[in-house]
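Morning. Coffee machine broken again, so started the prediction first thing and wrote up yesterday's gels while waiting. Chain of 544 residues, entered below exactly as on the submission form.
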Amino acid sequence: MSSQLGVATGAGILARERTIAGPAYNRWLVVPAALAVHLCIGMAYGFSVFWLPMSKLIAAPDATACHDLGFLAALTTTTCNWTVPQVTHVFETFIAMLGISAAIWGGWLEHAGPRKAGFIAAICWGGGMFLGGVGVSMHQLWIVYLACGIMGGVGQGLGYITPVSTLIKWFPDRRGMATGFAIMGFGGGAMIGAPLAVALMKHFSATSPGGVAPTLMVMGVIYFFVMSAGAFGFRVAPTGWKPAGFQPKTDHGKAMITQRHVHLNRAWKTPQFWFIWVVLFVNVTAGIAVIAMASPMLQDVFGGKLVGAADITALSAAEKAAIVAAAAGLVGLISLFNSLGRLFWASLSDKLGRKNTYYCFFVLGIVTYCTLPTWGHLGVPSLFVVTVCVIMTMYGGGFATVPAYLADIFGTQMVGAIHGRLITAWSAAGVVGPMLIASLRESQIAAGVAKNLVYDRTLYIMAFLLLVGLISNAMVRPVKESVYMSDEELARERSLSHETGSAANADAAARGAFGAGGALAWLAVGIPFLIGLFIALQKAAALF
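Came back before lunch.
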Protein backbone atom coordinates (compact mmCIF):
# COMPACT_ATOMS: atom_id res chain seq x y z
CA MET A 1 0.00 0.00 0.00
CA SER A 2 2.78 2.44 0.87
CA SER A 3 4.34 2.01 -2.55
CA GLN A 4 0.95 2.66 -4.16
CA LEU A 5 0.73 5.92 -2.28
CA GLY A 6 4.15 7.01 -3.43
CA VAL A 7 5.69 6.93 0.06
CA ALA A 8 9.44 6.77 -0.15
CA THR A 9 11.15 4.19 2.02
CA GLY A 10 12.54 5.86 5.10
CA ALA A 11 10.67 9.12 4.54
CA GLY A 12 10.19 11.00 7.80
CA ILE A 13 6.79 11.42 9.38
CA LEU A 14 6.73 15.09 8.35
CA ALA A 15 7.66 14.42 4.73
CA ARG A 16 5.20 15.49 2.06
CA GLU A 17 5.17 12.04 0.45
CA ARG A 18 3.84 10.64 3.74
CA THR A 19 0.77 12.88 3.46
CA ILE A 20 -0.56 11.87 0.02
CA ALA A 21 -4.16 10.78 0.55
CA GLY A 22 -5.26 7.17 0.26
CA PRO A 23 -8.61 5.76 -0.93
CA ALA A 24 -10.38 6.03 2.45
CA TYR A 25 -9.69 9.74 2.91
CA ASN A 26 -12.46 12.34 2.55
CA ARG A 27 -11.50 15.79 1.29
CA TRP A 28 -13.75 17.53 3.84
CA LEU A 29 -11.35 16.47 6.59
CA VAL A 30 -8.69 18.91 5.37
CA VAL A 31 -10.93 21.90 6.19
CA PRO A 32 -11.00 21.40 10.01
CA ALA A 33 -7.24 20.78 9.87
CA ALA A 34 -6.84 24.18 8.20
CA LEU A 35 -9.24 25.80 10.67
CA ALA A 36 -7.27 24.39 13.61
CA VAL A 37 -4.19 26.27 12.38
CA HIS A 38 -5.95 29.51 11.46
CA LEU A 39 -8.08 29.76 14.62
CA CYS A 40 -4.82 29.74 16.60
CA ILE A 41 -2.81 32.25 14.59
CA GLY A 42 -5.95 34.43 14.33
CA MET A 43 -5.28 35.42 17.95
CA ALA A 44 -3.12 38.09 16.30
CA TYR A 45 -6.26 40.24 16.08
CA GLY A 46 -6.92 39.73 19.79
CA PHE A 47 -3.48 40.66 21.13
CA SER A 48 -4.76 44.09 22.13
CA VAL A 49 -6.14 42.54 25.36
CA PHE A 50 -2.52 42.27 26.58
CA TRP A 51 -1.38 45.85 25.97
CA LEU A 52 -2.89 47.61 28.99
CA PRO A 53 -2.01 44.84 31.51
CA MET A 54 1.53 44.75 30.11
CA SER A 55 1.88 48.47 30.88
CA LYS A 56 1.09 47.87 34.58
CA LEU A 57 3.37 44.97 35.51
CA ILE A 58 5.41 46.81 38.17
CA ALA A 59 3.32 48.05 41.08
CA ALA A 60 6.01 50.12 42.87
CA PRO A 61 5.15 53.86 43.13
CA ASP A 62 8.31 54.91 41.28
CA ALA A 63 7.72 52.44 38.43
CA THR A 64 5.15 54.47 36.56
CA ALA A 65 5.45 54.28 32.80
CA CYS A 66 8.63 56.01 31.73
CA HIS A 67 7.29 58.16 28.92
CA ASP A 68 10.66 59.84 28.48
CA LEU A 69 12.52 56.54 28.27
CA GLY A 70 13.98 55.91 24.82
CA PHE A 71 12.93 52.86 22.87
CA LEU A 72 16.30 51.10 23.21
CA ALA A 73 16.34 51.73 26.98
CA ALA A 74 12.77 50.41 27.25
CA LEU A 75 13.90 47.10 25.72
CA THR A 76 16.03 46.23 28.75
CA THR A 77 14.59 48.23 31.68
CA THR A 78 13.46 46.26 34.73
CA THR A 79 12.46 49.24 36.87
CA CYS A 80 10.01 51.09 34.63
CA ASN A 81 6.64 50.02 33.31
CA TRP A 82 6.43 49.87 29.53
CA THR A 83 4.12 52.31 27.80
CA VAL A 84 1.22 51.05 25.72
CA PRO A 85 2.79 52.35 22.46
CA GLN A 86 6.00 50.48 23.27
CA VAL A 87 4.26 47.12 23.61
CA THR A 88 1.88 47.61 20.68
CA HIS A 89 4.86 47.56 18.33
CA VAL A 90 4.82 43.79 18.93
CA PHE A 91 1.68 43.62 16.76
CA GLU A 92 3.30 45.57 13.94
CA THR A 93 6.36 43.30 14.19
CA PHE A 94 4.52 40.01 13.80
CA ILE A 95 2.29 41.36 11.03
CA ALA A 96 5.41 42.51 9.16
CA MET A 97 7.10 39.15 9.80
CA LEU A 98 3.96 37.36 8.59
CA GLY A 99 4.40 38.79 5.11
CA ILE A 100 8.19 38.54 5.08
CA SER A 101 8.29 34.89 6.19
CA ALA A 102 5.48 33.88 3.82
CA ALA A 103 7.34 35.53 0.94
CA ILE A 104 10.69 33.92 1.84
CA TRP A 105 9.53 30.38 2.60
CA GLY A 106 6.47 30.07 0.37
CA GLY A 107 8.42 28.22 -2.32
CA TRP A 108 9.96 25.87 0.27
CA LEU A 109 6.48 25.16 1.66
CA GLU A 110 5.25 23.91 -1.73
CA HIS A 111 8.03 21.29 -1.72
CA ALA A 112 7.97 20.45 2.00
CA GLY A 113 4.20 20.01 2.22
CA PRO A 114 1.58 21.26 4.68
CA ARG A 115 2.39 18.85 7.51
CA LYS A 116 6.00 19.94 7.94
CA ALA A 117 5.19 23.63 7.39
CA GLY A 118 2.20 23.49 9.74
CA PHE A 119 4.24 21.79 12.47
CA ILE A 120 7.02 24.38 12.21
CA ALA A 121 4.33 27.08 12.34
CA ALA A 122 3.03 25.48 15.56
CA ILE A 123 6.52 25.55 17.08
CA CYS A 124 7.05 29.20 16.11
CA TRP A 125 3.62 30.61 17.08
CA GLY A 126 3.04 28.48 20.19
CA GLY A 127 6.69 28.63 21.21
CA GLY A 128 6.85 32.35 20.50
CA MET A 129 3.92 33.02 22.82
CA PHE A 130 5.43 30.80 25.52
CA LEU A 131 8.83 32.53 25.33
CA GLY A 132 7.03 35.88 25.19
CA GLY A 133 5.52 34.96 28.56
CA VAL A 134 9.03 34.26 29.84
CA GLY A 135 10.08 37.71 28.59
CA VAL A 136 7.15 39.33 30.42
CA SER A 137 8.00 37.47 33.64
CA MET A 138 11.61 38.74 33.38
CA HIS A 139 10.37 42.20 32.33
CA GLN A 140 12.57 42.14 29.25
CA LEU A 141 10.78 43.73 26.31
CA TRP A 142 13.45 42.63 23.84
CA ILE A 143 12.57 38.99 24.57
CA VAL A 144 8.90 39.74 23.94
CA TYR A 145 9.78 41.31 20.59
CA LEU A 146 11.98 38.40 19.53
CA ALA A 147 9.56 35.73 20.76
CA CYS A 148 6.05 37.03 20.03
CA GLY A 149 7.06 39.47 17.32
CA ILE A 150 9.71 37.77 15.19
CA MET A 151 9.40 34.07 16.06
CA GLY A 152 5.61 34.32 16.34
CA GLY A 153 5.46 36.29 13.10
CA VAL A 154 7.28 33.50 11.26
CA GLY A 155 4.75 31.06 12.69
CA GLN A 156 1.95 33.27 11.48
CA GLY A 157 3.36 33.55 7.98
CA LEU A 158 3.89 29.80 7.57
CA GLY A 159 0.59 28.97 9.27
CA TYR A 160 -1.37 31.43 7.15
CA ILE A 161 -0.29 30.10 3.76
CA THR A 162 0.11 26.41 4.71
CA PRO A 163 -3.51 25.36 3.94
CA VAL A 164 -3.96 27.46 0.79
CA SER A 165 -2.37 25.31 -1.89
CA THR A 166 -3.67 22.13 -0.26
CA LEU A 167 -7.28 23.33 -0.08
CA ILE A 168 -7.32 24.71 -3.61
CA LYS A 169 -6.13 21.39 -5.01
CA TRP A 170 -8.74 19.48 -3.01
CA PHE A 171 -11.56 21.81 -4.11
CA PRO A 172 -11.03 22.73 -7.76
CA ASP A 173 -14.82 23.04 -8.01
CA ARG A 174 -15.13 25.37 -4.97
CA ARG A 175 -11.84 27.20 -4.60
CA GLY A 176 -13.30 30.29 -2.98
CA MET A 177 -15.41 28.41 -0.46
CA ALA A 178 -12.50 26.17 0.56
CA THR A 179 -10.06 28.98 1.25
CA GLY A 180 -12.91 31.01 2.74
CA PHE A 181 -13.45 28.35 5.41
CA ALA A 182 -9.80 28.32 6.45
CA ILE A 183 -9.21 32.05 6.34
CA MET A 184 -12.49 32.57 8.20
CA GLY A 185 -10.62 30.91 11.06
CA PHE A 186 -8.01 33.66 11.06
CA GLY A 187 -10.75 36.28 11.31
CA GLY A 188 -12.49 34.35 14.09
CA GLY A 189 -9.39 33.46 16.08
CA ALA A 190 -9.68 36.57 18.23
CA MET A 191 -13.30 35.76 19.09
CA ILE A 192 -12.00 32.64 20.85
CA GLY A 193 -8.54 33.75 21.94
CA ALA A 194 -9.32 37.20 23.37
CA PRO A 195 -11.99 36.01 25.89
CA LEU A 196 -9.75 33.06 26.79
CA ALA A 197 -6.82 35.41 27.42
CA VAL A 198 -8.96 37.72 29.57
CA ALA A 199 -10.25 34.78 31.64
CA LEU A 200 -6.74 33.38 32.11
CA MET A 201 -5.29 36.76 33.11
CA LYS A 202 -8.04 37.11 35.70
CA HIS A 203 -7.31 33.61 36.99
CA PHE A 204 -3.54 34.15 37.26
CA SER A 205 -3.66 37.76 38.48
CA ALA A 206 -3.43 36.68 42.14
CA THR A 207 -0.02 35.05 41.60
CA SER A 208 1.45 37.06 38.70
CA PRO A 209 1.36 40.80 37.84
CA GLY A 210 -1.71 41.19 35.67
CA GLY A 211 -1.63 37.46 34.97
CA VAL A 212 0.03 38.24 31.61
CA ALA A 213 3.11 35.98 31.74
CA PRO A 214 1.39 32.68 32.69
CA THR A 215 -1.45 33.46 30.27
CA LEU A 216 0.96 33.78 27.35
CA MET A 217 2.69 30.56 28.39
CA VAL A 218 -0.53 28.56 28.77
CA MET A 219 -1.95 29.84 25.49
CA GLY A 220 1.35 29.09 23.75
CA VAL A 221 1.15 25.46 24.89
CA ILE A 222 -2.51 25.19 23.86
CA TYR A 223 -1.84 26.68 20.44
CA PHE A 224 1.15 24.40 19.87
CA PHE A 225 -0.90 21.25 20.42
CA VAL A 226 -3.95 22.45 18.47
CA MET A 227 -1.86 23.60 15.49
CA SER A 228 0.16 20.37 15.59
CA ALA A 229 -3.07 18.37 15.46
CA GLY A 230 -4.12 20.40 12.43
CA ALA A 231 -0.73 19.91 10.77
CA PHE A 232 -0.86 16.13 11.20
CA GLY A 233 -4.43 16.14 9.91
CA PHE A 234 -3.39 17.50 6.51
CA ARG A 235 -3.39 15.25 3.46
CA VAL A 236 -2.45 16.33 -0.05
CA ALA A 237 -4.32 15.38 -3.20
CA PRO A 238 -2.54 13.11 -5.70
CA THR A 239 -1.53 14.81 -8.93
CA GLY A 240 -4.54 15.10 -11.23
CA TRP A 241 -7.12 14.30 -8.53
CA LYS A 242 -10.67 15.57 -9.24
CA PRO A 243 -13.97 15.26 -7.38
CA ALA A 244 -16.38 12.75 -8.87
CA GLY A 245 -18.11 14.22 -11.92
CA PHE A 246 -16.03 17.42 -12.03
CA GLN A 247 -14.72 18.52 -15.43
CA PRO A 248 -12.70 21.75 -15.78
CA LYS A 249 -14.02 24.12 -18.42
CA THR A 250 -12.04 24.46 -21.61
CA ASP A 251 -11.60 28.13 -22.40
CA HIS A 252 -8.72 28.15 -24.93
CA GLY A 253 -6.81 30.55 -22.68
CA LYS A 254 -9.33 33.38 -22.88
CA ALA A 255 -11.20 33.04 -19.57
CA MET A 256 -10.02 34.20 -16.14
CA ILE A 257 -9.47 30.63 -14.88
CA THR A 258 -6.45 28.84 -16.33
CA GLN A 259 -5.79 25.10 -16.25
CA ARG A 260 -2.05 25.69 -16.68
CA HIS A 261 0.59 26.79 -14.17
CA VAL A 262 3.02 29.68 -13.67
CA HIS A 263 6.24 29.28 -11.68
CA LEU A 264 6.75 31.51 -8.64
CA ASN A 265 9.90 32.98 -10.16
CA ARG A 266 7.87 34.30 -13.11
CA ALA A 267 4.54 34.98 -11.40
CA TRP A 268 5.77 37.80 -9.18
CA LYS A 269 7.34 39.56 -12.16
CA THR A 270 4.06 39.77 -14.11
CA PRO A 271 1.83 42.87 -14.21
CA GLN A 272 -1.07 40.67 -13.04
CA PHE A 273 0.70 39.92 -9.76
CA TRP A 274 1.27 43.58 -8.99
CA PHE A 275 -2.24 44.61 -9.99
CA ILE A 276 -3.61 42.04 -7.53
CA TRP A 277 -1.01 43.20 -4.96
CA VAL A 278 -2.43 46.73 -5.21
CA VAL A 279 -5.97 45.34 -4.99
CA LEU A 280 -5.18 43.60 -1.69
CA PHE A 281 -3.12 46.51 -0.32
CA VAL A 282 -5.95 48.98 -0.94
CA ASN A 283 -8.62 46.69 0.46
CA VAL A 284 -6.60 46.05 3.64
CA THR A 285 -5.63 49.71 4.14
CA ALA A 286 -9.23 50.86 3.84
CA GLY A 287 -10.40 48.12 6.20
CA ILE A 288 -7.73 48.95 8.78
CA ALA A 289 -8.96 52.56 8.69
CA VAL A 290 -12.39 51.47 9.86
CA ILE A 291 -11.02 48.98 12.41
CA ALA A 292 -8.77 51.68 13.87
CA MET A 293 -11.42 54.39 13.92
CA ALA A 294 -14.75 52.60 14.46
CA SER A 295 -14.82 52.56 18.28
CA PRO A 296 -13.54 56.14 18.91
CA MET A 297 -15.58 57.37 15.94
CA LEU A 298 -18.78 55.92 17.37
CA GLN A 299 -18.11 57.65 20.71
CA ASP A 300 -16.88 60.98 19.27
CA VAL A 301 -19.54 61.34 16.58
CA PHE A 302 -22.63 60.10 18.39
CA GLY A 303 -21.66 60.57 22.05
CA GLY A 304 -24.74 60.89 24.26
CA LYS A 305 -27.10 59.94 21.43
CA LEU A 306 -26.07 56.34 22.01
CA VAL A 307 -27.84 56.45 25.38
CA GLY A 308 -30.54 58.96 24.49
CA ALA A 309 -28.84 61.95 26.16
CA ALA A 310 -28.85 65.31 24.42
CA ASP A 311 -26.06 66.95 26.44
CA ILE A 312 -22.81 64.96 26.39
CA THR A 313 -21.27 67.22 29.06
CA ALA A 314 -23.88 66.14 31.62
CA LEU A 315 -23.57 62.38 31.29
CA SER A 316 -23.75 60.29 34.44
CA ALA A 317 -21.15 57.63 35.21
CA ALA A 318 -23.64 54.93 34.19
CA GLU A 319 -24.31 56.63 30.86
CA LYS A 320 -20.60 56.98 30.15
CA ALA A 321 -20.16 53.28 30.95
CA ALA A 322 -23.00 52.45 28.57
CA ILE A 323 -21.31 54.40 25.76
CA VAL A 324 -18.04 52.54 26.35
CA ALA A 325 -19.97 49.23 26.37
CA ALA A 326 -21.63 50.16 23.07
CA ALA A 327 -18.22 50.88 21.53
CA ALA A 328 -16.96 47.51 22.81
CA GLY A 329 -20.04 45.92 21.26
CA LEU A 330 -19.09 47.44 17.91
CA VAL A 331 -15.60 45.93 18.25
CA GLY A 332 -17.25 42.54 18.81
CA LEU A 333 -19.37 42.99 15.69
CA ILE A 334 -16.28 43.97 13.69
CA SER A 335 -14.61 40.69 14.65
CA LEU A 336 -17.76 38.72 13.84
CA PHE A 337 -18.43 40.22 10.42
CA ASN A 338 -14.74 40.20 9.53
CA SER A 339 -14.81 36.43 10.09
CA LEU A 340 -18.16 35.59 8.49
CA GLY A 341 -17.46 37.85 5.49
CA ARG A 342 -14.49 35.67 4.62
CA LEU A 343 -16.65 32.62 4.03
CA PHE A 344 -19.59 34.52 2.50
CA TRP A 345 -17.70 36.51 -0.13
CA ALA A 346 -15.19 33.78 -0.97
CA SER A 347 -18.03 31.29 -1.52
CA LEU A 348 -19.95 33.85 -3.58
CA SER A 349 -16.85 34.37 -5.73
CA ASP A 350 -17.25 30.78 -6.98
CA LYS A 351 -20.46 31.99 -8.64
CA LEU A 352 -19.58 35.59 -9.53
CA GLY A 353 -15.94 35.08 -10.44
CA ARG A 354 -13.05 36.56 -8.50
CA LYS A 355 -12.67 39.72 -10.59
CA ASN A 356 -16.38 40.55 -10.32
CA THR A 357 -16.27 39.94 -6.57
CA TYR A 358 -13.54 42.55 -6.18
CA TYR A 359 -15.56 44.91 -8.36
CA CYS A 360 -18.33 44.49 -5.75
CA PHE A 361 -15.87 45.23 -2.93
CA PHE A 362 -14.67 48.45 -4.49
CA VAL A 363 -17.95 49.83 -5.84
CA LEU A 364 -19.88 48.98 -2.67
CA GLY A 365 -16.89 50.12 -0.60
CA ILE A 366 -16.78 53.56 -2.22
CA VAL A 367 -20.49 54.01 -1.50
CA THR A 368 -20.26 52.84 2.12
CA TYR A 369 -17.13 54.85 2.98
CA CYS A 370 -18.72 57.99 1.56
CA THR A 371 -21.97 57.43 3.47
CA LEU A 372 -20.38 56.81 6.89
CA PRO A 373 -19.83 60.56 7.53
CA THR A 374 -23.42 61.20 6.42
CA TRP A 375 -24.83 58.89 9.10
CA GLY A 376 -22.73 60.80 11.63
CA HIS A 377 -24.04 64.19 10.47
CA LEU A 378 -27.61 62.92 10.52
CA GLY A 379 -27.14 61.33 13.94
CA VAL A 380 -28.21 57.80 12.92
CA PRO A 381 -25.97 55.36 14.83
CA SER A 382 -27.91 52.27 13.69
CA LEU A 383 -27.11 52.89 10.02
CA PHE A 384 -23.52 53.71 10.97
CA VAL A 385 -23.17 50.31 12.68
CA VAL A 386 -24.78 48.43 9.77
CA THR A 387 -22.45 50.18 7.30
CA VAL A 388 -19.37 49.32 9.37
CA CYS A 389 -20.47 45.66 9.46
CA VAL A 390 -20.87 45.60 5.66
CA ILE A 391 -17.39 47.12 5.27
CA MET A 392 -15.96 44.47 7.59
CA THR A 393 -17.40 41.64 5.52
CA MET A 394 -15.57 43.02 2.49
CA TYR A 395 -12.35 43.51 4.44
CA GLY A 396 -12.40 39.85 5.48
CA GLY A 397 -13.72 38.74 2.10
CA GLY A 398 -10.76 40.34 0.35
CA PHE A 399 -8.34 38.15 2.30
CA ALA A 400 -10.31 34.97 1.63
CA THR A 401 -10.95 35.57 -2.08
CA VAL A 402 -7.41 36.47 -3.12
CA PRO A 403 -5.92 32.92 -2.94
CA ALA A 404 -8.57 31.68 -5.38
CA TYR A 405 -7.95 34.75 -7.57
CA LEU A 406 -4.26 33.81 -7.72
CA ALA A 407 -5.09 30.19 -8.53
CA ASP A 408 -7.38 31.34 -11.35
CA ILE A 409 -4.66 33.52 -12.89
CA PHE A 410 -1.47 31.55 -12.15
CA GLY A 411 -2.70 27.96 -11.74
CA THR A 412 -2.59 25.77 -8.66
CA GLN A 413 0.89 24.22 -8.73
CA MET A 414 2.64 27.04 -6.81
CA VAL A 415 -0.32 29.09 -5.59
CA GLY A 416 0.75 28.80 -1.94
CA ALA A 417 4.15 30.30 -2.71
CA ILE A 418 2.65 33.03 -4.91
CA HIS A 419 0.16 33.82 -2.16
CA GLY A 420 3.09 34.08 0.25
CA ARG A 421 4.68 36.77 -1.91
CA LEU A 422 1.38 38.58 -2.35
CA ILE A 423 0.56 38.99 1.34
CA THR A 424 3.48 41.34 1.67
CA ALA A 425 0.70 43.74 0.63
CA TRP A 426 -0.96 42.97 3.96
CA SER A 427 2.26 43.60 5.86
CA ALA A 428 2.74 46.90 4.03
CA ALA A 429 -0.84 47.94 4.70
CA GLY A 430 -0.52 46.87 8.35
CA VAL A 431 2.38 49.29 8.82
CA VAL A 432 1.49 52.10 6.43
CA GLY A 433 -2.26 52.12 7.08
CA PRO A 434 -2.26 52.93 10.82
CA MET A 435 0.51 55.53 10.37
CA LEU A 436 -1.44 57.23 7.57
CA ILE A 437 -4.69 57.22 9.52
CA ALA A 438 -3.10 58.49 12.74
CA SER A 439 -1.25 61.30 10.94
CA LEU A 440 -4.42 62.39 9.11
CA ARG A 441 -6.36 62.49 12.38
CA GLU A 442 -3.66 64.41 14.27
CA SER A 443 -3.18 66.96 11.48
CA GLN A 444 -6.90 67.73 11.42
CA ILE A 445 -7.12 68.06 15.20
CA ALA A 446 -4.09 70.39 15.09
CA ALA A 447 -5.89 72.43 12.42
CA GLY A 448 -8.83 72.93 14.80
CA VAL A 449 -11.29 70.53 13.16
CA ALA A 450 -14.03 69.45 15.58
CA LYS A 451 -13.60 65.93 16.99
CA ASN A 452 -16.83 64.67 15.48
CA LEU A 453 -15.67 65.82 12.00
CA VAL A 454 -12.02 64.70 11.94
CA TYR A 455 -12.95 61.31 10.50
CA ASP A 456 -14.77 62.63 7.43
CA ARG A 457 -11.74 63.52 5.34
CA THR A 458 -9.99 60.25 6.23
CA LEU A 459 -12.99 58.22 5.07
CA TYR A 460 -13.20 60.17 1.81
CA ILE A 461 -9.49 59.51 1.22
CA MET A 462 -10.11 55.80 1.81
CA ALA A 463 -12.91 55.94 -0.76
CA PHE A 464 -10.44 57.43 -3.24
CA LEU A 465 -7.99 54.60 -2.48
CA LEU A 466 -10.77 52.13 -3.26
CA LEU A 467 -11.15 53.81 -6.65
CA VAL A 468 -7.46 53.07 -7.24
CA GLY A 469 -8.16 49.46 -6.32
CA LEU A 470 -11.10 49.36 -8.72
CA ILE A 471 -8.88 50.52 -11.59
CA SER A 472 -6.13 48.05 -10.64
CA ASN A 473 -8.64 45.18 -10.58
CA ALA A 474 -9.89 46.18 -14.03
CA MET A 475 -6.32 45.84 -15.36
CA VAL A 476 -6.07 42.14 -14.43
CA ARG A 477 -5.99 39.95 -17.53
CA PRO A 478 -4.92 36.35 -18.25
CA VAL A 479 -1.14 36.01 -18.37
CA LYS A 480 0.78 35.65 -21.61
CA GLU A 481 1.38 32.20 -23.07
CA SER A 482 5.15 32.60 -22.60
CA VAL A 483 4.77 32.89 -18.82
CA TYR A 484 3.34 29.40 -18.27
CA MET A 485 5.57 26.50 -17.30
CA SER A 486 6.47 24.05 -20.05
CA ASP A 487 5.66 20.36 -19.56
CA GLU A 488 9.29 19.74 -18.61
CA GLU A 489 9.32 22.56 -16.04
CA LEU A 490 6.05 21.36 -14.55
CA ALA A 491 7.38 17.79 -14.29
CA ARG A 492 10.50 19.05 -12.51
CA GLU A 493 8.45 21.14 -10.07
CA ARG A 494 6.24 18.16 -9.29
CA SER A 495 9.28 15.98 -8.67
CA LEU A 496 10.61 18.58 -6.17
CA SER A 497 7.23 18.37 -4.43
CA HIS A 498 7.50 14.56 -4.34
CA GLU A 499 4.45 14.17 -6.57
CA THR A 500 6.17 11.74 -8.94
CA GLY A 501 4.11 8.56 -9.14
CA SER A 502 1.15 9.91 -7.18
CA ALA A 503 -0.88 10.49 -10.35
CA ALA A 504 -1.57 6.74 -10.53
CA ASN A 505 -3.76 7.11 -7.43
CA ALA A 506 -5.75 10.09 -8.68
CA ASP A 507 -8.87 8.14 -9.65
CA ALA A 508 -9.02 6.01 -6.51
CA ALA A 509 -7.85 8.45 -3.82
CA ALA A 510 -10.09 10.25 -1.36
CA ARG A 511 -13.36 8.51 -2.12
CA GLY A 512 -14.00 7.57 1.51
CA ALA A 513 -17.01 8.39 3.66
CA PHE A 514 -17.11 11.39 5.99
CA GLY A 515 -17.80 9.17 9.00
CA ALA A 516 -17.60 9.69 12.76
CA GLY A 517 -13.99 10.87 12.52
CA GLY A 518 -15.04 13.70 10.23
CA ALA A 519 -17.84 14.72 12.58
CA LEU A 520 -15.44 14.78 15.55
CA ALA A 521 -12.89 16.84 13.62
CA TRP A 522 -15.51 19.43 12.71
CA LEU A 523 -16.87 19.52 16.27
CA ALA A 524 -13.34 20.07 17.61
CA VAL A 525 -13.03 23.34 15.70
CA GLY A 526 -16.73 24.20 15.48
CA ILE A 527 -17.55 24.22 19.19
CA PRO A 528 -14.81 26.74 20.16
CA PHE A 529 -15.81 28.90 17.18
CA LEU A 530 -19.47 28.87 18.24
CA ILE A 531 -18.49 29.75 21.83
CA GLY A 532 -16.49 32.70 20.50
CA LEU A 533 -19.42 33.67 18.30
CA PHE A 534 -21.77 33.63 21.30
CA ILE A 535 -19.41 35.86 23.32
CA ALA A 536 -19.12 38.31 20.39
CA LEU A 537 -22.90 38.48 20.08
CA GLN A 538 -23.22 39.10 23.82
CA LYS A 539 -20.87 42.07 23.54
CA ALA A 540 -22.70 43.33 20.46
CA ALA A 541 -25.98 43.28 22.39
CA ALA A 542 -24.79 46.39 24.27
CA LEU A 543 -25.32 48.34 21.04
CA PHE A 544 -29.02 47.59 21.11
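The CA atoms of residues 521 and 530 lie 14 Å apart. Going to sketch it on the whiteboard this afternoon.
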